[in-house]
């Protein structure tokens, strides 16, 4: 088909261009490559790393942050696979747009799978929707899928896992494999059979994905260990994965170093208590590995979402400290215009109020700091907030500063003991923390006794002065009357 420009055949133009024809051909190829390059980049792989998201728990936002860090960290490792997020329909759309547009993930929307085990006595409501993980078997556009929990920390590329068979998982428990990471071959036949087993009430010890999948593949314990073939071929069957693909963080805390001889040390998992997941700012230095997770977040997602709140809180705390240095209010004097027989009750109530105010000064900042901020920032803001609120109690009840701040100093000391980087092992570290707590206990008790004694002395002095002032006013009134 001839191409014309204003009625002139394109071929005649090339003839007239003479030596410029070669240049035009190169220019045409360059334009074609520019158009094809995005398509090549967007081409889907036949393998995928997948994780899931759902809402309905108190930790929805924290897990959203964890999923984003997981996806970005896999991108940094240049994995040759698609990155998928299996998201329930009620996940907020702004979160999904961030995953797709900023993190490069592909989102698969699914309906929440009904959990028939939710009425079991031992059921944990946190795992009510964890059976959404079964949707991984419906991803039939892929040959292999590595299904992940959000609390995995990747140390290196693990694309060799896509060579494993139809189902592969790690036994971090001697008898039960862990579903925080496993390899599967998608199959609608298997997926429909799993849904059928759910409807029939298949036995599930914990009512979550862990118990169901473990009961569906009961023979895995007797299967051989996975070793990736050097020629890159995919294996058939089921295999146990080496422990290096799911290194339980508790193994690290025993020796404060990794010594997992089975397989490459590739992935760390944090299956412990939910309030000690690595993304919480208080997880370090309580758990040393928390800082490693936050280092991955710093390199990938950053902390821009929390910094505004951190700066506002810091400004408020600094303002409170400045105000308490300028004013010395006392809320106790108006409380003594009572009968003598009730003065002891008033004293006891004021002592209790003062102690509760001091307790609130140490507890309140902990809960208002954004949970997923970097631990160093979190602890600095916490200590600043505790100091600011303690200064209010000190000036309101005319308390001595040092006894009130003894717990503050104790927390600083405990952080230094836990963060000390040169312990020979986890046992020595635990004994050091225990020894520090044992030695600090008498100081804590002495500070509380000193606070109560100071309150009693202050109350008695102010009560005496109030009584004298009241008597003087009464005599003056009588003198004026007569």
Summarize this entry quickly:
The protein has 482 residues and is α/β, with parallel strands linked by helices.
The biggest beta sheet reads:
7 strands, mixed
Query: From the coordinates shown, what is the CATH architecture of the largest domain?
Result: Alpha-Beta Complex
CATH superfamily of the largest domain: Spore Coat Polysaccharide Biosynthesis Protein SpsA, Chain A
Runs in which pLDDT lies below 50 for 5 or more consecutive residues are: 1-19, 27-42, 331-339, 467-482
Helical/strand content category:
alpha/beta
Mean pLDDT: 85
Q: Looking at the structure, what is the overall shape? A: elongated
CATH topology of the largest domain: the name is Spore Coat Polysaccharide Biosynthesis Protein SpsA, Chain A
Beta-strand portion reads 5-15%
Q: Count of helices? A: 14
- Tally of structural domains: 2
Q: H/E element string?
A: EEHHEHEHEEEEEHHEEHEHHHHHHH
| Head-to-tail CA distance between termini | 126 Å
CATH class of the largest domain: Alpha Beta
User: Helix coverage percent of residues?
Assistant: 40-55%
- Computed Rg: 33 Å
Number of E strands = 12
Strand order of the largest sheet: 5-4-3-6-9-8-10
Protein name: Glucuronosyltransferase PGSIP8
GO molecular function: glycosyltransferase activity
Transmembrane segments: 22-40, 307-327, 348-373, 379-398, 405-424, 430-453
Keywords: Glycosyltransferase, Manganese, Membrane, Transferase, Transmembrane, Transmembrane helix
């Amino acid at each position: 088909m001839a191409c014309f420009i204003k009625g002139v055949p394109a071929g005649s133009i090339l003839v007239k261009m003479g030596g410029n024809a070669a240049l035009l051909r190169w220019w045409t190829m360059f334009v074609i490559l520019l158009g094809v390059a995005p398509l090549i980049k967007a081409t889907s792989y036949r393998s995928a790393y997948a994780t899931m998201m759902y809402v309905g728990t108190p930790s929805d936002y924290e897990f959203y942050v964890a999923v984003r860090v997981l996806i970005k960290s896999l991108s940094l490792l240049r994995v040759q696979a698609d990155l998928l997020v299996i998201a329930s329909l009620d996940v907020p759309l702004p979160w999904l747009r961030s995953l797709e547009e900023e993190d490069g993930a592909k989102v698969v929307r699914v309906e929440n799978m009904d959990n028939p085990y939710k009425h079991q006595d031992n059921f944990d409501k946190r795992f009510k929707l964890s059976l959404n993980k079964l949707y991984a078997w419906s991803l039939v556009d892929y040959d292999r899928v590595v299904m992940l929990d959000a609390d995995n920390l990747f140390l290196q590329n693990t694309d060799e896992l896509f060579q494993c068979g139809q189902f592969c998982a790690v036994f971090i428990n001697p008898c039960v494999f862990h579903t925080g990471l496993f390899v599967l071959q998608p199959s609608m036949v298997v997926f429909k059979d799993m849904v059928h087993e759910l409807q029939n009430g298949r036995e599930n010890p914990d009512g979550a994905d862990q118990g169901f999948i473990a009961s569906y593949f009961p023979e895995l314990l007797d299967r051989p260990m996975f070793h990736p073939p050097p020629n890159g071929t995919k294996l058939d069957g089921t295999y146990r994965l080496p422990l290096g693909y799911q290194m339980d963080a508790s193994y690290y805390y025993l020796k404060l170093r990794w010594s997992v001889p089975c397989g490459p040390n590739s992935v760390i998992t944090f299956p412990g208590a939910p309030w000690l997941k690595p993304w919480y700012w208080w997880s370090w230095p309580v758990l040393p590995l928390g800082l490693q997770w936050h280092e991955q977040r710093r390199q990938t997602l950053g902390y821009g979402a929390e910094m505004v709140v951190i700066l506002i809180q810091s400004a408020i705390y600094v303002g409170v400290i400045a105000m308490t240095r300028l004013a010395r209010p006392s809320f106790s004097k108006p409380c003594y215009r009572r009968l003598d027989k009730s003065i002891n009750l008033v004293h006891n109530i004021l002592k209790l109020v003062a102690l509760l105010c001091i307790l609130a000064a140490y507890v309140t900042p902990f809960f208002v700091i954004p949970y997923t901020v970097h631990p160093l920032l979190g602890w600095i803001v916490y200590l600043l907030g505790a100091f600011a609120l303690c200064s209010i109690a000190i000036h309101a009840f005319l308390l001595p500063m040092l006894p009130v701040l003894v717990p503050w100093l104790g927390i600083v000391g405990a952080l230094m003991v836990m963060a000390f980087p040169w312990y020979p092992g986890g046992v020595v570290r635990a004994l050091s923390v225990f020894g520090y707590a044992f030695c600090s206990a008498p100081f804590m008790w002495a500070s509380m006794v000193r606070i109560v004694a100071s309150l009693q002395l202050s109350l008695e002095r102010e009560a005496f002065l109030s009584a004298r002032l009241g008597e003087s006013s009464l005599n003056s009134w009588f003198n004026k009357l007569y």
